[in-house]
Design a protein that fits this description.
Number of helices: 3
Order of helices and strands: HHH
Mean pLDDT: 93
Distance between the termini: 40 Å
Shape: flat
Radius of gyration: 18 Å
C-alpha cells in the first residue's frame, strides 16, 4: 500500500491519507486479530457478538425513523 505525495503536499497530509487507507483496508485490525491463535469456538463467539452488535445498531436505526 502506498500514497503518492504531490509536490505541494505536506508530509503530514500524506501520512494522514495513508493512515486512512490502512484503516479502511482493515490491515491493523486484521494484524491484531491474527497476532494470537484463535480457536474455532472463539471465532464463533467473536462473530456472534459482532452479529449482535450489528442487530442492535439496525434496531436503533429503525426506531429513529
Amino acid at each position: 500500500m502506498y500514497v503518492r505525495v504531490a509536490e505541494q503536499e505536506s508530509i503530514e497530509r500524506a501520512l494522514r491519507r495513508f493512515k486512512k487507507q490502512v484503516q479502511k483496508a482493515g490491515i491493523l485490525s486484521d494484524y491484531r486479530r491474527k497476532k494470537f491463535f484463535e480457536s474455532p469456538s472463539e471465532r464463533r463467539k467473536r462473530k456472534a457478538a459482532a452479529a449482535r452488535r450489528r442487530q442492535v445498531k439496525r434496531s436503533w436505526h429503525r426506531d429513529d425513523a
